[in-house]
Amino acid sequence: MTTNNNNKNVPKATFQRYPVYLKALRKLKKHGVERVMSKELAELVNIEPTTIRRDFSFLGNLGKQGYGYSVDRLVDIFNQQLGVDFDEKIILVGAGNLGRALMNYNKWDYVVGEIVCAFDRDESKIGMELYGVPVYSIDELEERIPSGCHIAILTITHGVQNTVDRLVECGITGIIDFTSKHFNVPKGVVVKSVDVVSSIQELVFESNSMNKKA
Ligand SMILES: NC(=O)c1ccc[n+]([C@@H]2O[C@H](COP(=O)([O-])OP(=O)(O)OC[C@H]3O[C@@H](n4cnc5c(N)ncnc54)[C@H](O)[C@@H]3O)[C@@H](O)[C@H]2O)c1
């Protein structure tokens, strides 16, 4: 059991379904849907409408029956219940091949937030909108970085340490690094490195050693 904000004891199974509902509701919100019936939501999340109605009964008064639930209201409630901010403003540095692919994807499964702007040093890209994301000059990083932004995705090829230092100065505390280049960060800054090549190498190594044992 988990006690929620309405001081109701929520069964564990119900609580575990909250992120599933939130993801579906955020998707609906993105598509401009304002109200949703439990039956419609049931089809999206593959959970019985009766289970949904029971799960929602722990959330307090959600309005008149038969009229559908307010998507906005539910998103707010689930955000609160889960105690996380799924609206991270993420910046991307390096609007090249990989950067573009990430901007094109930019749905982040409707749960983590989205890339709000990109930075590059290439004059031909500055001022463009790529998949709806504006690209600014890296020279304007300090002026353009959105307030409250803590996460940066790094997809550049040059000057990594210098760029990281500037990002940290601007308040970035989390970096998703695709560059595979070594750089230092001060304490309190978290770096998650994504390296497809290393993953393939590990995979080859593991599958070779498994085959040797067999
Ligand atoms: N981790 C992985 O699995 C993986 C896979 C592919 C590529 N990469 C790496 O990702 C990075 C990007 O690859 P790509 O193919 O998109 O390269 P790319 O050349 O297509 O794009 C790089 C972009 O970054 C910009 N740039 C470079 N240095 C900059 C700086 N200091 N400040 C601002 N903008 C800068 C360039 O102008 C360009 O637009 C490379 O470091 C590459 O090695 C990693």
Automatic annotation (TrEMBL):
Places the protein is found: Cytoplasm
GO MF: DNA binding; DNA-binding transcription factor activity
Transmembrane intervals: none
Keywords per UniProt: Cytoplasm, DNA-binding, NAD, Repressor, Transcription, Transcription regulation
Pfam families in the record: CoA_binding (PF02629), Put_DNA-bind_N (PF06971)
Stored Gene3D superfamilies: NAD(P)-binding Rossmann-like Domain (3.40.50.720), Winged helix-like DNA-binding domain superfamily/Winged helix DNA-binding domain (1.10.10.10)
DNA-binding region(s) in UniProt: 20-59
GO process terms (BP): negative regulation of DNA-templated transcription; response to redox state
Annotated ranges, domain CoA-binding: 83-182
GO cellular component: cytoplasm
Residues where NAD(+) binds: 94-99
Superkingdom as given in the UniProt entry: Bacteria
Protein task: Modulates transcription in response to changes in cellular NADH/NAD(+) redox state.
Self-association and partners: Homodimer.
Record family assignment: Belongs to the transcriptional regulatory Rex family.
PANTHER family per the UniProt record, alphabetical: REDOX-SENSING TRANSCRIPTIONAL REPRESSOR REX (PTHR35786), REDOX-SENSING TRANSCRIPTIONAL REPRESSOR REX 1 (PTHR35786:SF1)
Protein name: Redox-sensing transcriptional repressor Rex
Source organism (scientific name): Absicoccus porci
